[in-house]
Amino acid sequence: MIETIQEIRSNMENNIFFYLTPKASVKYLDEKDNLRQAVEKMQFHNYTSIPVVSQDGRYLRSVSDQDIVRYIHRYNLDLDRCENHNITEIDDVRPVRAIRTNKTMNDLVDIIVDQNYVPVIDDEEHFIGIVTRKTVITYLVGELKENNKK
């Protein structure tokens, strides 16, 4: 089936690469970071959740402020003692789902409802960047406006 130029353009614009915040622009944790480093980075950047990336660049998971508070409370830690705990020791209560690079913005809609961002990974699970909830909402509003014009 032959696609029209408009359909091709629409499919290209629907690709998550057009809406991706690249890894270089995203603050994330290294798997070797300790709990104190996580707390300080999240506080400085005012994050409620942050990706954790392996030494070889693979997305491992995301850690939320709730996960950290729960861990600190469970082990009765102060900020100094947080230095002795690796970020990988923390259990995640609500895992943050990642999505592969070949997905579209429409694929993100169901995921973004429960997450502040969606990590984007390649076929080898390397962390490429994120698509934020705000970006998805802005995209959907644009789609609604476009459909209302038709």
Largest sheet: 4 strands, mixed
Structural class determined from secondary elements? alpha/beta
Count of DSSP helices?
A: 5
Distance between the terminal alpha carbons, to the nearest Å?
Answer: 24 Å
Q: Please tally the β strands and state the result.
A: 7
User: At the fourth CATH level, what is the homologous superfamily?
Assistant: CBS-domain
Can you tell me the CATH topology?
CBS-domain
Mean of all residue-level pLDDT scores: 90
Question: What does the model show?
Answer:
The protein is of the alpha/beta class and 150 residues long. The chain has a single domain (5-149), classed as Roll (CBS-domain), CATH 3.10.580. The chain is 37% helix and 19% strand. A hairpin with a 5-residue loop joins β3 (49-53) and β4. The radius of gyration is 18 Å and the shape is elongated. The model has no long low-confidence stretch (mean pLDDT 90).
Which SSEs are present, and which pair or pack?
Layout: H1 5-14, E1 21-22, E2 29-30, H2 35-45, E3 49-53, E4 59-64, H3 65-74, E5 99-100, H4 105-112, E6 117-121, E7 127-132, H5 133-149
Characterize this entry briefly:
By secondary structure, the protein is an alpha/beta fold.
Keyword list:
alpha/beta, CBS-domain, 4-stranded mixed beta sheet, 3-stranded mixed beta sheet, 7 strands, elongated
